[in-house]
Structure formats: structure tokens, C-alpha cells
Amino acid sequence: MEYEFEPGLIDEPEKYDVNGLTPPGTLSIADKTWALKWYPGLKAALTTLQPFQAVAADLAVGQQVDFAITPTASRKYRIETKGASDTLLVLFEDISGEPRFLAGDDDSGEDRNASIAYKLFQGRSYIVRLRLYYPGQSGKVSLMYS
């Protein structure tokens, strides 16, 4: 990221000592590359996660997978991972093709699995994102909602 520095804060090169540093106020190419790596866009068609049916994911470190959820009833649901991996779980509501953050859980390498309990509404569309931080013994993790 590019940050502004007042004159006198940077000794060399001398022009920055006298004039300071004022970046253009935009994202650099490196910023954009990093953002796309860690926050890739959604695929056009997501696999729909079915209630009470676990889905296995074999991910590499930093990889993520997204699933669609279309609840059949309005009620509180539990979305959770199983396995020995360190994961991040995030729930979004799909509003006109744009994901809006609702909830997330990072098991933070603790001896537990990532889990979200949230009220979902029939007739609305949701996206659940699973990201692998550390593979543990196998790198395999499963995801289910009920």
C-alpha cells in the first residue's frame, strides 16, 4: 500500500526529505495482485450446499471454496466445518449478485472447528465461503449446514 509522508520524515532520496511523498491515491499493481490472490471473485455458478449433507474439500493453504445455500425454511441454521485443519468460515447474503457479509468464524488454530449459527430466510440466497489457513494432518475438511 502507498502512504503519504510529510517533508522531513524520509532522509533519502533527498527530494522526499524536502517535498515529502504523496502517492497518487490509487491501488498499485502489487496491491491489486495481492487482493485478487486473497479475495478472488465468485464463480458464475456455485455448487449448492444441501442441508444435512457434508461436502468434503481438499484445499491447499490459502485456497477457498464457495457454496450457495438456499434455505427451505426461515429459521436458525448451523454451518460448520469438521476436520483437523485451521479454517475460516464466512457467510454472505447474495443481494443482486453482490455478496453482503453476515457472519464469520475463524477457529484460529484452536482445537475446535469453525462454526456459524445464523437465521436464514426462505426465498433468499446465501453464500458460504471456506478458506484453509493450515492443513493440519491432511488438509481435508468437510462442510455441512443443518
What's the quick description here?
The protein is mainly beta and 146 residues long.
Tell me about the largest β-sheet. 5 strands, mixed
Q: For the terminal residues, how far apart are their CA atoms?
A: 41 Å
Percentage of residues in strands: 35-45%
Low-confidence stretches: none
**Helical content band:** 10-25%
Structural class: mainly beta
Mean pLDDT: 85
The spatial strand order of the largest sheet comes to 1-3-8-5-6
Instruction: List how many beta strands DSSP finds.
Output: 9
Radius of gyration: 21 Å
The backbone outline, from C-alpha atoms, is elongated
Provide a count of the helices: 2
What order do the helices and strands follow?
HHEEEEEEEEE
Q: Keyphrases for this structure?
A:
single chain, 146 residues, mainly beta, five-stranded mixed beta sheet, four-stranded antiparallel beta sheet, 9 strands, 11% helix
What does this entry look like structurally?
The chain has 146 residues and is mostly beta strands. Helices cover 11% and strands 42% of the residues. Strands 1-3-8-5-6 form a five-stranded mixed β-sheet, with no helix packed on it. The protein is built from two helices and nine strands, in the order H-H-E-E-E-E-E-E-E-E-E. A hairpin with a 2-residue loop joins strand 5 and strand 6 (98-106).
